[in-house]
Design a protein that fits this description.
Elements (H helix, E strand, L loop, with lengths): L6 E4 L5 E4 L2 E2 L6 H13 L3 E2 H8 L6 H16 L7 E3 L3 E4 L4 E3 H8 L9 H10 L14 H28 L4 H14 L4 H13 L3 H17 L7 H5 L11 H13 L8 E4 L3 E2 L7 H15 L6 E2 L2 H4 L9 H8 L3 E10 L2 E10 L4 E11 L3 H29 L8 H12 L4 H17 L4 H16 L5 H18 L4 H13 L3 H14 L4 H13 L3 H14 L6 H14 L3 H14 L4 H13 L3 H14 L5 H7 L4 H14 L3
Parallel strand pairs: 1-7, 8-10, 8-11, 9-11
Antiparallel strand pairs: 1-2, 2-3, 4-6, 5-6, 11-12, 12-13
Helix pairs in contact: 1-3, 2-3, 5-6, 6-7, 7-8, 8-9, 12-15, 15-16, 16-17, 16-18, 17-18, 18-19, 18-20, 19-20, 20-21, 21-22, 22-23, 22-24, 23-24, 24-25, 24-26, 25-26, 26-27, 26-29
């Protein structure tokens, strides 16, 4: 309504509400304030019985308590000409059509990756995130609310870490600007060697040498106290030249000698894997740390879109303390993998990290603790996990570089990188933008297999999501996929593309064969595993389908397509008639990506078949919001499954009330 005043709900820091330009005096009841916060942050209606269970115990009269709280919120939240609290006999929600919730605004801005946010937006986000989520608003007698609140605080904390880390990286060329954020990050991430190292490095290059030394000593002691296995990053940061350091004649000569021996950079991303440090104190255990490094080099070499430095070159740095930038110059690389191995008894701890050398930032780090009952199996498992984590991080970094180059300077490779950064966001708008960029890349290089393949996958995915008409999308996808295979029959994306075409044509055996070829070429291609799992589920092999989807999730837990893989696992459980599990997974997919139509479809269908009609109808309403063109006819025409399974899916939607 035009008369409605804009409502601002602030949950970062102490809960506050501003209506128009007036701050609202909230009720003294903590449960009433907590109820308001919960409705605002979840941004959807909730059943009354759920709210009663969450906020009021059995001795109370929960429904009366809920009515009392709502009666005290309405005068503060509603306008005289329109209600914001929308309630009926079954559910309660908050109309946010003319309202903002600060944490939702920030999460939405970061949905495409905090790297895509402007520096000004990052600064504003860092300031807003200084306040703890619902600071001081704890309900010790309401376990469900506390669990939800704790999860939200953790998600907000992680967002703050990403914002601060991105700001520090963005401002590294202006150390004095970056320092306040680096100091905060260091205090918040006391067990993160990379955060401590970044602060030490910035202090040294900005001339704060005494504080840099003190920070280095404090960080060393803190990491020792917390039993953090080192990767050497902090030690290297302490060796960064001070701003006031003047190179002597010897260092100038060495620098000149290095510049003559430096290799030119490849026109594609290049990566080196340094020998992992043996932290076991037993030189005879070097074989294990060297084996991990060699396995990672071999596995990364299968990823054909970037150059991997051979083992004999990277192993020349074994046992030496050489600055990362020097290694990058000498090997002609942009990315460096390093790590350590500590064996103790029948356990091993392995740390690994990926560094963007040109930006001077750490892109990813992880620690793995395993038993050594089967040493070679452990070695293979950890190698697979590390390689699966590294590839999308390099993709993201290259996409970020492409985003910050003017359009006229983009070549076909950079156009592909920019297109992928949009494709991974999984929105209708970004899918269209990605297709436009891919078409430009193909115009530059008509035989660019990966660009052709991603274009095909994008159109197929758009049709599956209900964003494109299949009559238009599928022929374009088929032409592009066939062209990709002709251009490069060894490109994993090309086989993924033609597999997705065969899948939509109902040629399931051919589709599975192509996905298996994709995974032979790149065993860590989590998106291909997701497609493979979906196709297995289409033909009734739902246990294998669920296993494939879950393996994809394990391989790349931070993948932007993680919600899709969760949705595949949910659909597999639906096919297996495990409706409760299907609903659980579908909700998880929706939690990760609220507009994920696949999650809404499975939740609707599974709830209907389980007889939970209230859930099914609510899920169907959300599905219609996310996919307005949904209908029984659409499902019949767009779900490439066997007749029996199609009937199963359609019956579920009939029960839910879809026509």
């Amino acid at each position: 309504m035009k008369g409605k005043k804009l409502l601002h709900v602030c949950v970062l820091g102490h809960l506050s509400v501003v209506r128009g330009h007036t701050r609202v005096q909230l009720p003294p009841s903590k449960k009433t304030r907590a109820l308001l916060a919960y409705l605002a942050v979840t941004a959807r209606p909730h059943r009354r019985d759920r709210l009663c269970t969450m906020f009021w115990g059995v001795p109370d009269d929960p429904r009366a308590a809920l009515r009392w709280s709502l009666s005290h919120l309405r005068p503060l939240i509603d306008d005289h000409d329109g209600r914001r609290i929308i309630a009926d006999r079954e559910s309660v929600g908050l109309d946010l059509s003319r309202a903002t919730v600060d944490v939702l605004v920030l999460r939405n801005a970061a949905r495409g990756g905090v790297e895509s946010m402007s520096t000004k937006a990052l600064r504003e986000a860092a300031h807003a995130l200084e306040g703890e989520f619902l600071e001081g608003l704890d309900l010790s007698d309401c376990d469900q609310f506390q669990i939800w609140c704790t999860a939200e605080r953790e998600e907000t904390r992680r967002l703050r870490m990403r914002v601060l880390a991105t700001l520090v990286a963005r401002l590294e060329s202006e150390p004095d600007e970056a320092l306040p954020y680096a100091r905060t990050l260091s205090l918040l991430e006391t067990a993160d060697e990379a955060a401590q190292a970044t602060l030490v490095r910035l202090l040294r290059v900005s001339g704060h040498w005494r504080e840099a030394e003190e920070q280095f000593q404090r960080a060393q002691e803190r990491l020792d106290e917390l039993n953090v296995v080192r990767t050497g990053t902090l030690r290297l940061a302490a060796q960064v030249p001070l701003q006031t350091d003047a190179p002597d004649a010897t260092s100038r000569d060495e620098s000149l000698q290095r510049s003559h021996s430096a290799l030119p950079r490849s026109d594609r991303p290049a990566i080196a894997v340094l020998p992992f440090l043996n932290m076991s104190g037993e030189p005879e255990q070097d074989y294990f740390s060297d084996g991990i490094s060699e396995d990672i080099i071999a596995a990364l070499s299968k990823v054909r879109w970037f150059l991997v430095i051979a083992r004999n070159s990277s192993f020349t740095y074994k046992g030496k303390s050489v600055p990362m930038k020097q290694i990058a110059e000498e090997l002609g690389i942009g990315y460096l993998v390093e790590g350590s191995v500590r064996k103790s008894g029948d356990h091993v701890r392995i740390t690994a990290q990926l560094n963007d050398v040109s930006a001077g930032t750490q892109l990813w780090a992880e620690r793995y603790d395993r038993g050594l009952a089967d040493v070679f199996k452990v070695q293979d498992e950890i190698t697979t996990a590390i390689v699966a984590a590294i590839e999308p991080q390099v993709y993201a970094a290259e996409s970020f570089r492409a985003q910050h180059k003017p359009p006229e300077s983009l070549d076909a490779w950079e156009l592909l990188m920019r297109a992928l950064s949009h494709y991974w966001r999984v929105t209708r708008e970004d899918n269209v933008v990605a297709q436009g960029l891919l078409e430009k890349a193909i115009a530059i290089d008509p035989n660019y297999a990966q660009a052709l393949a991603v274009l095909a996958v994008s159109h197929n995915f758009g049709a599956h999501m209900g964003w494109e008409d299949r009559a238009t999308a599928f022929p374009v996808a088929e032409r592009a996929a066939l062209a990709a295979i002709r251009a490069d029959g060894d490109d994993p994306w090309a086989h993924l593309a033609i597999g997705s075409v065969y899948g939509h044509q109902g040629r399931f055996a051919d589709a599975l064969a192509e996905y298996e070829a994709t995974l032979r070429l790149n065993p860590n291609f989590s998106l291909a595993l997701g497609y493979y799992g979906l196709t297995l589920s289409f033909i009734g092999r739902w246990q294998e389908g669920a296993d494939a989807a879950n393996r994809a999730r394990r391989l790349s837990p931070r993948d932007p397509f993680s919600a899709i893989c969760v949705g595949v696992a949910a659909y597999a459980e639906f096919v297996g008639r495990n409706y409760a599990k299907a609903m659980e997974l579908a909700r998880e997919g929706i939690r990760q990506r609220v507009d994920f139509v696949g999650g809404h479809r499975v939740l609707t269908a599974a709830a209907a078949m389980a007889g939970e009609m209230d859930v099914a109808k609510a899920a169907l309403a959300e599905l219609r919001r996310a996919q307005p063109n949904i209908s029984l006819a659409w499902i019949a025409n767009h779900t490439p499954v066997g007749e029996a399974e199609r009937d199963h899916f359609l019956e579920a939607f009939r029960r839910a009330g879809l026509d």
